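Database export, one record per block. Field names are fixed; values are copied verbatim from the stored entry.
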Amino acid sequence: MPTVLRLLLFTLIWTVSLSASGLRVNILYLNQKVQRPPVLSNIIEKPDDLGLTGAKIAVEDTQKTAKFLDQHYSLTTEVSYKEEDLIKAFERFVDAGGHYVIVNVKLPLFLKLMKHPKIKEVLIINAGLSDTSLRMYYCNINLLHTMPSDAMLYDGLMQFLVKRNFKKIFLLQGKTVKDKHIAIAIRRAAKKFNATIVKEKIWNNATDIRRKAEDELPVFTQGGDYDVIVTADYFGDFGEFVYFNSWLPRPVAGTQGLTPLMWHKSIEQWGAAQMQERFKKFAARDMESEDFAAWVAVRTIATSLMHTNTSDVKTNIAYIRSNEFELAAYMGRPLSFRSYNGQLRMPIALVQPLALISSSPQVGFLDPVTDLDTLGIAKFEMKCKR
């Protein structure tokens, strides 16, 4: 056999052997589709691939460097409206030896998964739900949250309002369950940072506000003096029309106006501009918080495995929850997870539709460990113990 052919054959055998012996990691992404309610939410478009595309580009980003460490990452996805489809996909994945699961599902399904007998075999990362209760009542060692909680989001907003002396708040709440949860987070944040909710009203009007905003909202927003209107209107049924229609000429914040988010297209510092462009080229749209939460979830898994060089789930959970773990994520500082509830520590962006206004934690708000822990549930607020 000629020398060149022998060399090529040896190279091929060595490459196949290397691939076979390398670390291969499959990640499951469960995405439950949501039927959005009618009225204004019909015109506030949400991408069909929200969250999922963030996971996909994260695997692509990871694989570029992982190949030099002889690691290979792949993504298994299941997208459905039906709980049973997603639970079956989870069971198939675990039965096949999978250990890393990212979920973007509704609360009832999430709670069912947390009670599933196979859940202890995996690292499960919540990249969709912001419910504060999940951070207070669940202490599972194998549960992480890359989506910020409502408490984190509205602590970040309230810090800014208090710092800018918008301390008298008129709270306008919608009638959905999600609106109620956000309103609870707003009240909690106001109490925490010494702001005052001087008036509260619940929007119960079932008519199409688009036709009567000029008539109804000025009357609805009467209620003494206040510095700022804060809305809890998750689906946007009325909050978009509060601008310039309030009884007093006041700014709007909350779910509309100045909004607290994990990620926004106006974030450009610390290499984020390159990330935004890469995502837009990949998905033909802007990156949103759900996409970034999924991206961070995949990068968390990969960062750990690149350090430990083992797919053993217990080893990686221990490392991720340790003080040694740090994640680079275009936010100007390394991120880590809180040991007591698995929540990712992160800055919160305060944005208007086309501009980044500020980022919390605000200067002057302090914590014994890190100022990032001024946002969200503190250890003493936990309702469970491990």
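Remark 1: The chain has two domains: 3-148+264-346, 152-259.
Remark 2: The first helix runs from residue 3 to 21.
End of record.
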